[in-house]
Amino acid sequence: MTEHPDLFHTLMAATAAGPAIDGAVLTAVHLARRHKARLFIVHAVPLPRGADHGGGSTPNRTPSCPIVPNDAGAAAQQLYARYAAHCPSLKPDDVRIAWGVAWEAVFREAVKLKCDLIVMGPHARSPDAARAPKTKRFLGSTADGVISRARCPVLIANGAFDASQLNFKRIVVGVDFSSSCTAAVGLAALFAKRSGAFVSTFHMLPIAPYPKYSPKALEADISRQQKRMDALCSRLLEGTGYQSVLKPGVQPHAEILNFVEQVGADLIVMGSHTRDRTGKWYAGSVVQRVTCHTRCPVIVVNGPDALTPWEFVNPAVYPTTT
Q1: 137, 142, 115: which is closest to 126 by C-alpha?
Q2: What pTM value is reported for the model?
Q3: Closest CA to 167 of 269, 34, 25
Q4: DSSP character for 223?
Q5: Residue 8: how many CA atoms within 13 Å on its side-chain side?
Q6: φ and ψ at 248, to 5 degrees?
Q7: So what's the pLDDT on residue 322?
Q8: Chain-centre distance of CA 306, in angstroms?
Q9: Domains of the chain listed by start with CATH number
Q10: Helical axes 285-293 vs 252-263, angle rounded to 10°
Q11: Please, are residues 101 and 146 in contact by the beta-carbon 8 Å criterion?
Q12: Which of 158, 223, 289, 304 has the fewest CB atoms in 10 Å of its CB?
């Protein structure tokens, strides 16, 4: 198969503080190498209330602000030294310290650098929290804020993935027929056309309480939704290997995770619900749960605008499916 141009040219890995090697950064290193992309590493540092990080007052160190502006150069050097051996092409100027609320700082740097992929991990968990029941795990406010506002796809790496694990060949796309999920199918198509990946689109058909929802009504809904899936896939996945799967269920995240295990997927692509009726920004509960419990990377797309970095994408084919 003839490969399309490299999908990513500028990657940004957002990393938390701490001396340990960040798995999300290592994942970004391998992705950058695979796509011949430039990698930036950004660490967001919050400032105490009232502090001016634009050259005014200099805040004191606090538990929430482990370094101060005068230390930014040294902190960047430490990060560079930590990852330079893993990424020989990394330059000192490619490591940045961003000040402010974490998600805002990451978002601001991504826009400034014109990134076409942001790589980050879910909320850091202590060893005790990691052993807690799965329902206690969560994506984290930083990743949630970045996902819901990013102008490019966001890859959540729940661990470190090496080059062999990033050779995506079996992709699952969760579909609920929103514009963001339509864009997610489009992004999966780009991967498929570049490397010959097989795409499985998955939609869970919610089961209404019985007896209000008869088997006949369920059969009719399955037929109707299958036609929508077929129309969506034939439009966006033409020329690739794909299948569309519908399954009745109650919990979308659980059904998606079960399907991912069933087909042995090495990448999940999802659309993110970005705003509710009150104007609150959020990533969506299904995205939250899937990203925290899957064993493979998850790329989240919050709408068709996130696909604009790719000039060979025709925006006209990514409207909301009705």
Answers
A1: 137
A2: 0.84
A3: 34
A4: H
A5: 29
A6: -65, 145
A7: 41
A8: 11
A9: 10-156 (3.40.50.620), 163-303+312-317 (3.40.50.620)
A10: 40
A11: no
A12: 223
Residues of the chain by 3-state class (helix, strand, coil), percent to 5: 40, 20, 40
The alpha-helical segments, DSSP class H, found in the chain are: 23-35, 72-83, 102-113, 127-130, 141-149, 179-195, 215-236, 252-263, 285-293
Q: What is residue 57's DSSP assignment?
A: -
Looking at the chain, the whole-number percentage of residues with pLDDT higher than 90 is: 49
- Phi then psi for residue 42, to 5 deg, are -125, 130
pLDDT of the residue at 303? 86
pLDDT, tens digit (0-9, with 9 covering 90-100), for 134-175: 444 567 788 989 998 999 999 999 889 999 999 999 999 999
Give 274's pLDDT tier (boundaries 50, 70, 90). low
* Residue length of the chain: 322
C-alpha–C-alpha distance, residues 90 and 70, integer Å: 23
CA distances from 215 to 185, 203, 218, 224, 248 (A): 30, 18, 5, 14, 11
198 and 171 Cβ atoms separated by less than 8 Å: yes
Supply the DSSP symbol for 264. T
CA–CA separation, 309 and 322 (whole Å): 25
Tell which residue, 91, 111, 202, 119, has the closest CA to residue 151.
111
